[in-house]
Fold each of these.
Amino acid sequence: MRHEVTTTIDAPADLVWRTVKDIEKWPEWTPTMTEVRLTGDSLRAGSVASVRQPKQPARTWTVTALNDGHSFTWASAGRGLRMSADHVVTEDDGRTTVLLTFDLAGPMAPLTSLLVGRLIRQAVDTEAASLKKWCERTSR
């Protein structure tokens, strides 16, 4: 399963990137996160975070790639299931665009998609909408 959401945000790209990169503050702006704890002092490739989300067990996510100022990808794995999520911030002609992507893979991915795919899509959609609202309100 793969789900992508693109949203345009009426705020400077550097503000949007700082908001995306500061993962421990995500619970302040999105209801899809209740707690995010980063091991270490800053987000970088190899960073590990413990993430708690409503009605889900805590998961450990590892940053697999970071292009500072623009994007990061992190991944988590469980029995027969691999999850990854991309967070990409771009600016073109003064417009800031965010692309959020969530992927499920592995032997359990088809069943997981069937059982909770709709909830995953709703969560990613909510995160995009919440990020837009937060950044636009913060930039005024």
Note: Residues 2-138 form a domain with the Alpha-D-Glucose-1,6-Bisphosphate; Chain A, domain 4 fold (CATH 3.30.530.20).
Amino acid sequence: MKVMKNIEPLVAISIGEMVENSAHTIASKAICATETTDVRFFSYAKGESISKEYQEEDSLIYVYEGKLKIRFHQSDEQVVSKGEMMVLPSNVPYGIEVLEDSKSLNILVK
């Protein structure tokens, strides 16, 4: 495969099996990383967080298990639950607070 990695080609896999939950940590698995696109699966343990940071790419976060609080700009926040997604434009600082064990698919595009 030219661009995809960490996933077996031509085999169906459950999205829930892409990355495993681990206690007290955040884990990720990249399946595509190019100059213009980054596709990653994340697993978040309840109570963990990611500090606000800027991304040069537009970001789509699709939560397929659990519940995350996305904090953006100075004091805005939005809860994104299982089956929901949120788009964050490039150069908007955002962070994540994990409200319950969660998994997401994050797609970043320049």
Note: The radius of gyration is 14 Å.
Amino acid sequence: MSNLATQVLPHHSDPHSVGAPLACVQGTISKVFLSPEFHHAADHQQFVIKIDTVVKFDGGTQNLVGTEVFVAVRYGDSEGLAQEIPGLQVGQPIEAQGEYIAQASAYPTADNNNPVLPVLHFTHHPVGFVLYQGHTYS
């Protein structure tokens, strides 16, 4: 399966875009990785969301409800969040927006393997965000 969106979207012009569909999902945190991963010159806070609701899926056609998606939120530099999202806990509701990289196009990392899950990428400004416990992180 191709990772490309079914149409060209405004965020695709950003150098961090991989040309994937833009997904905004609501769900439940099913796993939190305690150690950040250093990737692309920045730390990434990582967790898994089981999707309950798709708020928006621009450029995509898959049914994402019930899917688990791996999320890696960049932080600690000028391109991501200033700091980690505090208090992430399994079982808590969360909303996140970013580029949806389908499982067939996602590559394995130290935490996203066996099996490799689809990825919600670019979950920070100017494209994405995370809404957790009443606070928006972008």
Note: The two ends are 29 Å apart (CA to CA).
